[in-house]
Amino acid sequence: MIPGFLFATGIENSIPTIDGGRVRVDEMEKCGHYRHWRTDFDLVQESGLHVLRYGPPLHTTYLGSERYDWSFADEAFRDLYRRDLILIVDLCHFGVPDWIGNFQNPDFPELFAQYARAFAERFPWVQLYTPINEMFICAVFSALYGWWNEQLTSDRAFVTALKHLVKANVMAMQAILDVRPDALFVQSESSEYFHAESPHAIGLAEMMNTRRFLSLDLNYGKRVDSTMYEYLMDNGMTRDEYQFFLKYNVRHHCIMGNDYYVTNEHRVTAEGSTHASGEIFGYAVITHQYHERYRLPVMHTETNLMQGPTGEEAVNWLYKQWANVLRVRNDGVPIVGFTWYSLTDQVDWDTALRQNNGNVNALGLYDLNRNIRPVGAAYRRLIHEWSQVLPTQSVCLQVPIVKPSEYDPVLCRQRCYQRHRVLQSVGGDALKSMS
User: Fold this and answer.
1) Alpha-carbon span 347 to 360, nearest angstrom
2) Mean pLDDT by groups of 10 residues along the chain of 435 residues
3) Disulfide engineering: 172 pairs with which of 131, 218, 291, 397, CB 3.0-4.6 Å?
4) Which superfamily is assigned to 6-426 in CATH?
5) What is the distance of C-alpha 233 from the center of its chain?
């Protein structure tokens, strides 16, 4: 088992469509990963990291129902296995193959679960998964803001996308557990907060602060409050669909991943519009809110900031986020990991991938020429220094994460039982129904 705190990075693999579905935004292509994937894996290890958020490109791997092209995945994952890296496999990151269409498709949950099972069967040594990345943000950007995929702008479209995304996530977890009984699921979800800009916006901000929990409420089988129940029912969810989430949650297999960026907090106007407020509460305060709601182990699964003109902007943000992680941990929240996302710079996130401009965003530990950035050097130092301290104190010592080289199918069920007991102890009432 891997000891200590889980320091991680990720390979950005967003694949939404824009322009009415005619243009595919493939971040692994834009960032050069298909050409430089061996170098990228080298850089992960050179940084002192043992954990990588990573997944094969869904749109080119999943060709049709029970039809797959594993050629790239086979080569990349064979190399990752050789390196013995701990993977958090990200199976769906903001988009689906053209033949599925978009997140309004009611067949998506079953089709995605089929893909998740096929992946787990092909790579049974993978233990950690984020089946669907940022379900809430994906539904908002695709069906409420009209930016990606279906590009719709209504509450009904949002609820439709959200229920399909979360149902797909739940069904995928169940399919993976059939293959790998000791699997763990890290829900990488955006941690949001909405601040009222004026007294007239208080009610709207309160509604938005309740709606931000919908993806995790459904995913973890927590009953929503009466306002959100009416909202869901008024916008197309049926009672049977709602009962599915209460009945089939597998929250005791989960670690709650909280993503936090400087854009995660918002000001709400009296008219109902929102705009970024910058950091007001910060990661520690907002993560406490999420932990108090779900009582699960936590991982900081995404953050970054543009390098800026001096290079110190991103470094300062790294240390600010790390201070917040330590604050949460010292307050007694079982936080097991931290992630700078992503390994390399990204492209066109300055317009939230809405425009295909080719603008390089200096957000990575390394630039697109694979040269280390100041934040990459700072993260390497942070990992080296804190790894000497945290293993003797971290709750992660008890979480049964198994290296690829240690995978033994005979021991999976035994480890599953051990993990069940550990999550019960570190997550408080993690195994209780949250009705």
Assistant:
1) 4
2) 79 98 98 98 97 98 98 98 98 98 98 98 98 98 98 98 98 98 97 97 98 98 97 98 95 96 98 96 98 97 95 96 97 95 98 98 98 98 89 53 91 67 53 33
3) 131
4) Glycosidases (3.20.20.80)
5) 27
